[in-house]
Design a protein that fits this description.
With about 190 residues, the chain is mainly α. Helices cover about 65% and strands about 0% of the residues.
Length: about 190
């Protein structure tokens, strides 16, 4: 079916405008700090700059809530619920599939919780609330392997860490709600 030439012209014009605008914006961002004209003496700014580890992020709380919510949703949907239904027990129907999904969900949750911690570092209140939980989040790295071995305490460990992160977020003014990620997000890890 042929496309009218006017539509093509409009689409091409819009694409070129978007490309030119984004290129100009990226160029201004890459230019770095501007230099002062000759003869002008630069003075130090009175405000301290944030440290590299706690650099201020745009929308830090929003990003934290999104990442922690995805982690909580994945843990509940593919780890806690199947465990409560008995799908991880030896001889259960669909055990292999449930364990594969749980392993992917565990890896995904670990990845999203690490991203949530990085986001929390951009907000002073959140970073203070999550500081004690980083060791617990790091301990989740080994839990997918424990799930595959049939260790039921791994499910409780996942749930406890998720609940602690939710509590820390709520205390810092960033309440976390479960968001079930799609299967493509699980496979992609983000």
């Amino acid at each position: 079916m042929p496309v009218p030439i006017r539509r093509l012209a409009v689409a091409l014009t819009v694409c070129c405008a978007l490309l030119a605008g984004s290129t100009a914006w990226a160029g201004s961002q890459a230019a770095g700090p501007r230099t002062a004209p000759a003869g002008v003496v630069a003075t130090a700014s009175p405000t301290p700059s944030p440290s590299a580890s706690a650099e201020k992020q745009r929308f830090a709380k929003t990003r934290f809530v999104a990442n922690a919510g995805l982690a909580a949703g994945a843990v509940y949907q593919w780890i806690v619920k199947p465990y409560q239904q008995g799908k991880f027990k030896k001889g259960a129907d669909g055990r292999r599939t449930a364990l594969i999904k749980a392993g992917l969900a565990g890896t995904f949750a670990y990845n999203r919780l690490k991203a949530a911690v990085r986001n929390a570092q951009g907000d002073p209140t959140l970073s203070k609330a999550l500081a004690p939980l980083t060791a617990g989040i790091d301990s989740l790295k080994s839990l997918p392997a424990r799930l595959r071995q049939g260790d039921g305490s791994a499910v409780n460990d996942f749930s406890n860490v998720i609940n602690q992160v939710k509590g820390a977020g709520s205390s810092a003014g960033a309440p976390v709600k479960d968001q079930v990620p799609s299967a493509s997000q699980l496979r992609g890890g983000s």
